[in-house]
Amino acid sequence: MKRLKRYQYEHYAILCRASYPKVFDHTEYGFDKHCRRDITDRFGNTIIRVLWGEKRDAVVVFKGSHCLSDWLTNLICLPKKLPTEHYAGHVHLGFYFQLHQRSQKAKNPYHTRYQRLSDNHLAEIAQASDVCHSEGDTVYHQIEACAKELRKLGKKMILTGHSSGGCMAVISAEMLEQKYPGIIKRIVTFGQPAPGFWSFKKHYQLKDKTYRICCDVDMVTFLPGLPFIYWHVGKMIWLHNNRIYQDIPSPVRIFRVLASWLMRPIAYHFMDKYIRRKDYFDHH
């Protein structure tokens, strides 16, 4: 597995944070002004942004839970078999539902010249096929339609998401890879719950391209809270105490965090803590 570079981590993290506000100017992050597609949920809220450039691959940003109905959907911890050509196991029903909900017209859309150009551009590159974005298609079908046209442009797809958006990114990646082999370049998620059962972990074919970022004792990363039933996939990168750890088991993570909390009053006495704060004096 290739290492995730620092600039890549920062880029995807910033995009995930920027996906939550309604106003989003993708050109600020290096994407071409006419290379964008927003995908909405059943309420008309944007939950996925597909961004690309003439000289760069596409980045698909999945927004995490942002309303009460999303959080309630996350509680549906039942198995759902992925409808793929080759068996891919069972995933969390709630996350599967979010991907296969019907898309509605954008709710109070914030129209900019960038969004209008994006729609026009995607219409141009979709002329060669009968599949295009339309209200009523499922969220995943719209992602798949974008993948089909981006593939014609020679683009690969990088999927990233925060929280439940990370789970949707992982599940979508498996389905897209089966539909269009080789189209997925990388998956990077932040604070992601476990997306599926052991069968999904066993058959997941993108484990060498998947990076799951966890921060300290983020409790969402331990959900749905059913040990040995729900499983994570890919490489886990844990950020803790200004260090980076890889593939640390969950019990070890919890133990180290608790030990850190207990030792914190003593640790603040160490000289490295004082040296690390030397820049404070430059502002006084």
TrEMBL record:
One GO BP annotation of this record: lipid metabolic process
Source organism of this protein record: Veronia pacifica
Domain Fungal lipase-type residues, every copy: 59-225
Entries under InterPro entries matching the protein: AB_hydrolase_fold, Fungal_lipase-type, Sec_MonoDiacylglyc_Lipase
Highest taxon of the lineage: Bacteria
PANTHER family according to UniProt: ALPHA/BETA-HYDROLASES SUPERFAMILY PROTEIN, FUNGAL LIPASE-LIKE DOMAIN-CONTAINING PROTEIN
Record SUPFAM superfamilies: alpha/beta-Hydrolases
Protein name: Lipase
